[in-house]
Backbone:
């Protein structure tokens, strides 16, 4: 019995010792962070309300310095100067308790409005002062996020000539057109157009959407994780054309769906950003469905290119011209040249740049006459259209109703935030639907 008591006392002493050590380590860590921060009492605070980007870090941006954090307890700190939001995680029911006129809001959002339709509308966008979106007009544009660099665009690493592709169409029984998508519910309604196009030209459709072809075993398993590996890029390169349709239609919203076929040398058949031609390597680098009255006339044109290798390869001049003439688009070249040399074009670099932009802005507010406001110019995604009839009145795409409902949501959200009214999400949704039902948006 005595031995058991001794063992119990010994175990308790050890546990208490461990607890004390843990508490001391936590206190030491807290004090070190607190001392580091308190030693810089004039440093403004930038809070990522939706955890993203830098956390518990003093960032130096040129002559400006800011403390970046995810810790919401800083919401009431007198040195808080800006609150940042990642658009896909922006939620009506989870916002700061108070909107102060002296604390700016920033929006980082590289995704399409499918992730958060409320951000399509002006009233919601007006809540933000700074933006980093796909638009060339945002403070830190993400337009070319998915284009690695100029050398990748013009390289022949995966290139297959028109004649070789014609042979592969015979020997491998390849269709002239490739389509590979697994997101089958999109605001752009792309599958609707592809189904009609398939009536007039053969399309190999992989992935979950309109599937009529089977990927090779080496690519099929977890193929979404292999979209940029050598084998997959070489597979895409064998096709003369690749359907490159975005999941939503917004100015400057251009993703890897366009860049991947351009990189490998398969001509993109594109539907997405109305301004996408502003970013093509040359005047003739992709085929836009908007240049054709219908899928029938598009298919007719594609058949003409299939019969004429010279005409087809005019769309591949970024691969085939002399090196210095491969890319003639000065806008594209200027943006690529401004990228920091020897720095990879990675997502994290854009987040870092946006944080630094906001940091510099909050330390220079006294020099500005007025604080900027984000508008639809920085996130321009109009009401979805029927991709064939190009008619907004069509009711077949349920995303249109979602767009219109969230117009009410944006108007209501703006009222709540500007007037610092706390939001009960159930009541908010009831009000939103009541506004929608009574055409008050």
Residues:
């Amino acid at each position: 019995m005595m031995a058991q008591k001794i063992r119990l006392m010994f175990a308790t002493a050890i546990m208490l010792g461990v607890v004390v050590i843990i508490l001391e380590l936590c206190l030491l860590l807290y004090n070190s962070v607190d001392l580091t921060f308190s030693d810089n009492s004039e440093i403004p605070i930038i809070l990522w309300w939706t955890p993203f980007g830098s956390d518990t870090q003093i960032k130096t941006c040129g002559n400006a310095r800011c403390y970046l954090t995810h810790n919401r307890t800083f919401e009431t700190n007198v040195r808080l100067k800006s609150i940042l939001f990642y658009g896909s995680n922006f939620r009506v029911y989870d916002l700061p308790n108070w909107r102060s006129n002296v604390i700016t809001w920033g929006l980082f959002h590289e995704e399409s409005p499918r992730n958060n339709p409320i951000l399509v509308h002006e009233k919601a966008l007006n809540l933000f002062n700074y933006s980093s979106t796909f638009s060339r007009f945002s403070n830190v544009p993400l337009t070319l996020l998915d284009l690695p660099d100029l050398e990748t665009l013009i390289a022949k690493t995966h290139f297959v000539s028109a004649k070789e592709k014609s042979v592969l169409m015979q020997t491998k029984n390849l269709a002239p057109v490739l389509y590979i998508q697994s997101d089958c519910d999109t605001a752009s309604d792309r599958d609707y157009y592809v189904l009609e196009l398939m009536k007039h030209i053969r399309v190999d459709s992989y992935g979950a959407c309109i599937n009529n072809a089977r990927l090779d075993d080496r690519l099929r398993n977890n193929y979404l994780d292999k979209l940029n590996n050598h084998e997959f890029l070489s597979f895409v390169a064998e096709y003369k054309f690749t359907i490159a349709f975005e999941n939503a239609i917004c100015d400057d919203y251009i993703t890897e769906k366009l860049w991947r076929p351009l990189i490998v040398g398969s001509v993109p058949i594109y539907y997405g950003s109305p301004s996408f031609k502003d970013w093509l390597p040359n005047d003739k680098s992709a085929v836009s469905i908007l240049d054709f009255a219908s899928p029938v006339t598009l298919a007719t044109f594609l058949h003409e290119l299939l019969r004429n290798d010279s005409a087809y390869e005019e769309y591949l001049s970024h691969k085939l011209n002399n090196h210095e003439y491969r890319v003639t688009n000065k806008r594209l070249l200027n943006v690529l040249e401004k990228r920091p040399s020897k720095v990879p074009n990675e997502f994290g670099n854009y987040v870092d740049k946006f944080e630094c932009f906001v940091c510099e802005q909050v330390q220079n507010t006294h020099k500005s006459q007025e604080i900027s406001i984000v508008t639809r110019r920085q996130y321009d995604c109009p009401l979805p259209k029927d991709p064939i009839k190009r008619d907004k009145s069509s009711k077949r795409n349920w995303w249109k109703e979602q767009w219109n409902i969230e117009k009410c949501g944006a108007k209501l959200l703006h009222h709540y935030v500007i007037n610092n009214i706390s939001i009960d999400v159930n009541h908010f949704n009831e009000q939103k639907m009541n506004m929608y039902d009574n055409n008050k948006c």
Confidence is low (pLDDT under 50) at residues 1-14, 16-36. The chain is about 35% helix and 10% strand. The CA atoms of residues 292 and 298 lie 6 Å apart. The radius of gyration is 27 Å.
